[in-house]
Design a protein that fits this description.
By secondary structure, the protein is of the alpha/beta class. The protein has one domain (3-206): Isochorismatase-like (Rossmann fold, 3-Layer(aba) Sandwich). The protein contains four helices and eight strands. It has helices spanning 36-44, 138-144, 157-170, 190-201, and strands spanning 12-16, 49-55, 76-79, 82-85, 111-115, 149-155, 174-183, 205-206. Strands 5-2-1-6-7-8 form a six-stranded parallel β-sheet. Helix 3 (157-170) runs parallel beside helix 4 (190-201). The chain starts with 11 loop residues before the first strand and ends in a 5-residue tail after the last strand.
């Protein structure tokens, strides 16, 4: 058993965006996205500290392809903070698509952190919006409790999970990605790019959810 698989009372599980729109039948479905739900439920039972993140976009969000004439989903535009992939409208505030998957069962989660609420900035990471300067508040929450090891699971492996884990490392946390509790979109090789980037950041990608 590796050191990382020994879950300590001060370790934190961050469950990223397990929402209806990212599951089969949703507006931006991750293939087999709902497969993570039972795995995450089992995994969360091993952690005293759990945070849930939730994409929570206003209607007409900048990242929606529908907000840009003559653009289609998965095109790229240049935002004030750099390149931005355009998505189908998804996780619009108050809609069923933005709700957590009905089978997600983590009653002891202490925090639901909503992100992507600013109309002009997308937010992949659970720690910072895509401008790389606007914090979500998660860093302060973790530091106030002196929690230093953070495990990430959820959707999608190659976007919101990836950037959350990388930002956690940038902020000095020890970060892990639990791959068997994630699923990915794999757009233009994004799964392979994620593995390479996480390795460069020193973030272990591990199988822990089924243990």
């Amino acid at each position: 058993m590796s050191e990382a698989t020994i879950i300590d009372n001060d370790d934190v599980l961050v469950v990223v965006d397990v929402q209806n729109d990212f599951c089969p039948g949703g507006a931006l479905a991750v293939p087999h996205g709902d497969d993570v739900v039972p795995v995450i439920n089992r995994l969360a039972a091993r952690f005293r500290n759990v945070v849930l993140t939730q994409d929570w976009h206003p209607p007409g969000h900048f990242s929606f392809a529908s907000s840009h004439p003559d653009k289609r989903p998965f095109d790229t535009v240049i935002a004030s903070y750099g390149p931005q992939t355009l998505w189908p409208d998804h996780c619009v505030q108050g809609t069923q698509g933005a709700a957590f998957h009905a089978a997600l069962d983590i009653p002891h989660a202490a925090l639901v952190l909503r992100k992507g609420m600013a109309r002009s900035i997308d937010s992949y990471s659970a720690l910072y919006e895509n401008d790389r300067t606007t914090p979500t508040g998660l860093v302060g929450y973790l530091r106030a409790r002196n929690w230093t090891r953070v495990f990430f699971a959820g959707l999608a492996f190659d976007f919101c999970v990836r950037f959350s884990a990388e930002d956690a490392r940038r902020e000095g946390f020890t970060a892990f990605v639990i791959e068997d509790a994630c699923r990915g979109l794999d757009i233009d090789g994004s799964m392979a790019a994620t593995r390479a980037s996480l390795a460069a950041f020193g973030v272990p990608v591990m199988a822990l959810g089924a243990a």
